[in-house]
């Protein structure tokens, strides 16, 4: 993946590592350039304050060899898909010029900031590729290859019936666990690490491997040929 750029968005400092950290570890190992953008410092969370959580996120970004930015939004629990926030995200997309963009999935039964961040990134990804979007004139337009949504909290589809892509992360489980442990303030009451690992384990068993991570593409994806398709595998159960 040398020369490929991945831009991952999260609403809170731990979302990216919990939702798709295993993928990013793999991408970094394969030479991709990683950029993380977080829309709050998690200052309204039950555990940990904003500065503690920022430090935790920076530690995780260091492990990933990733650049990390915190956007000046309305903050934790106040994140909404308004024009101002969408333009902030679109500017990041134009600045980074990523091949792949990652964002939280948008099902309803979860923290509202996750759902809103999903909508923000979806709209930002479109505006970043439109030629004359007001407010983005200073940056070169950019069309990413794909936008993929990852799961953070409880089960739920992306809400629009879109099909999932599963990625085998069997060899990354231990490294992923260590990465998630950077967010020590968030695992005091509930074992979010176990939640992520257990979901990945169940998905993996269904696909005939140890563990798998589920992503929802924004729309249909194009394979270059039958040869590219022949590397994929169907469900085992
Ligand atoms: Zn979150």
Task: Characterize the biggest β-sheet.
Answer: 7 strands, mixed
What CATH calls the topology is Rossmann fold
Radius of gyration: 17 Å
- % residues in beta strands: 15-25%
What's a quick, concise take on this entry?
The protein is an alpha/beta fold and 237 residues long.
Name some characteristics of this structure.
binds zinc ion; seven-stranded mixed sheet; 237 residues; 7 strands
Describe this structure in words.
With 237 residues, the chain is of the alpha/beta class. It has one domain: LmbE-like (Rossmann fold), CATH 3.40.50.10320. Helices cover 38% and strands 15% of the residues. The protein has helices at residues 15-29, 50-64, 83-96, 112-129, 173-180, 192-207, 226-229; strands at residues 5-10, 33-38, 67-70, 100-104, 146-150, 165-168, 212-217. Strand 1, helix 1 (15-29) and strand 2 form a beta-alpha-beta unit. Helix 1 packs across helix 5 (173-180) and helix 3 (83-96) crosses helix 4 (112-129). The radius of gyration is 17 Å and the shape is globular. 42% of the residues are buried. The structure holds zinc ion. Zinc ion (ZN) binds next to loops.
Task: Reconstruct the topology from this structure.
Blueprint (H helix, E strand, L loop, with lengths): L4 E6 L4 H15 L3 E6 L11 H15 L2 E4 L12 H14 L3 E5 L7 H18 L16 E5 L14 E4 L4 H8 L11 H16 L4 E6 L8 H4 L8
Parallel strand pairs: 1-2, 1-4, 2-3, 4-5
Antiparallel strand pairs: 5-7, 6-7
Helix pairs in contact: 1-5, 3-4
The protein binds zinc ion.
């Amino acid at each position: 993946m040398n020369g490929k750029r991945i831009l991952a968005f999260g609403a809170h400092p731990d979302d990216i590592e919990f939702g798709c950290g295993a993928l990013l570890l793999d991408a970094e190992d394969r030479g991709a350039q990683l950029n993380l953008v977080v829309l709050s410092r998690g200052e309204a969370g039950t555990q940990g304050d904003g500065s503690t959580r920022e430090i935790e996120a920076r530690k995780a970004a260091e492990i990933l060899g990733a650049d990390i930015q915190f956007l000046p939004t309305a903050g934790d629990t106040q994140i909404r898909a308004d024009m101002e926030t969408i333009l902030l995200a679109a500017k990041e997309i134009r600045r980074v010029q990523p091949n792949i963009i990652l964002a939280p999935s948008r099902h309803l039964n979860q923290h509202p900031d996750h759902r809103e961040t999903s909508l923000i990134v979806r709209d930002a990804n479109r505006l970043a590729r439109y030629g004359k979007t007001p407010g983005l004139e200073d940056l070169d337009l950019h069309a990413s290859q794909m936008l993929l949504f990852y799961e953070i909290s409880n089960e739920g589809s992306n809400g629009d019936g879109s099909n999932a892509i599963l990625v085998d992360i069997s060899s990354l489980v231990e490294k992923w666990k260590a990465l998630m442990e950077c967010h020590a303030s968030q695992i005091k009451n509930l074992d979010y690490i176990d939640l992520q690992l257990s979901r990945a384990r169940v998905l993996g068993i269904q696909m005939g491997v140890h563990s798998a991570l589920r992503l929802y593409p924004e729309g249909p994806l194009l394979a270059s040929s039958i040869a590219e398709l022949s590397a994929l595998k169907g469900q085992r159960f």
